Amino acid sequence: MAEEVLSQSEIDSLLSALSTGEMDAEELKVEDKEKKVRVYDFKRALRFSKDQIRSLSRIHENFARLLTTYFSGQLRTYVNIQVASVDQLPYEEFIRSIPTMTILNIFSVSPLEGRILLETNPNVAYAMLDRVLGGRGSSMNKVDNLTEIETTIMSQLFERALENYQEAWGSIVEIEALLEEFEVNPQFLQMVSPNETVIVVSLNTTIGEASGMINICIPHVVLEPIIPKLSVHYWMQNQQPKERNIEEYESLQKTIQKAQVDVKAVLGETDIFIEQFLQLQQNDVIRLNQRIDEPMTLKVDDEKKFYIQPGQLKNQMAVQVLEEIREEEEENE
């Protein structure tokens, strides 16, 4: 248990009260011995630490930025999305907090178990729909009688947005987000038990002149396998170079060094007509575009890499590398 540190003035005041009789030392001892009781609500079980909540907040702040860019390009209007809060609460409490008729996207995040719920306020959803259909982004609320066309457009819009969710989680775990259901009534939706702890990420969303909330509900069962990764230690480890990455790099480097490439020493080149080629006979001389006092070129996979000169090594023809051909020189040729 953390001990409370008193300042010098507080210590002086305490000693003064004890000396004057305002406080009794025996009473203080009795109070210390008494058991301190803290109220705990089992319906609101806290299963995530503050450190893990901060990690989830960072992930969804990145998602909010990606989503802002995505919707700005799709809707061609002013879009602003920011994380408002990240809380843990019972699933039943979350369901009661959202409108009775709203836009609900339920998607899986393989290989993690369970499903995630993306709830969009009708004001925001209809502003998006109006922009996609060529309107100014006016908002209306008629969720109870969505047409098949409206349902298809909205579900496709949010389905493509899930690619940004995959990218936001990329630093922690590789997931594949897949839209499974599209609902409008939360009462018909039972993802987990009512008392199950869920993480609710609320995003303040502005689309043109309309504004509202986008809520992401993540059950505990989804995050349970990756909870150890939601810590500052893991994030700091990821930011530092790892020995494993160095070993993988060295292994890859050794493998590439063993790869075979086609190397050609080019004596010279020239262009002739097909007719001349067909009439070539023994002892004919072909004039090349290479001067005798100029270095030859060495090609690696048909790309000029080095200037060379011909020679002999142990009774075999060989070439000596003079210098590397730089890209600027190759472009000027």
Q: Which terms summarize this structure?
A:
6-stranded antiparallel β-sheet, 4-stranded antiparallel β-sheet, alpha+beta, elongated, 11 helices, Surface presentation of antigens (SPOA), Chemotaxis protein chec
Quickly name the level 1 CATH class of the largest domain. Answer: Alpha Beta
Strand % is 25-35%
Total helices: the number is: 11
Please trace the helix and strand order, writing H or E for each element. HHHEHEEHHEEEHHHEHEEEH
What can be said about the biggest beta sheet?
A: 6 strands, antiparallel
End-to-end distance: 77 Å
Ranges with pLDDT <50 over ≥5 residues?
none
Keywords: Bacterial flagellum, Cell membrane, Cell projection, Chemotaxis, Cilium, Coiled coil, Flagellar rotation, Flagellum, Membrane
Membrane topology: Peripheral membrane protein
Subcellular location: Bacterial flagellum basal body; Cell membrane
Family: Belongs to the FliM family.
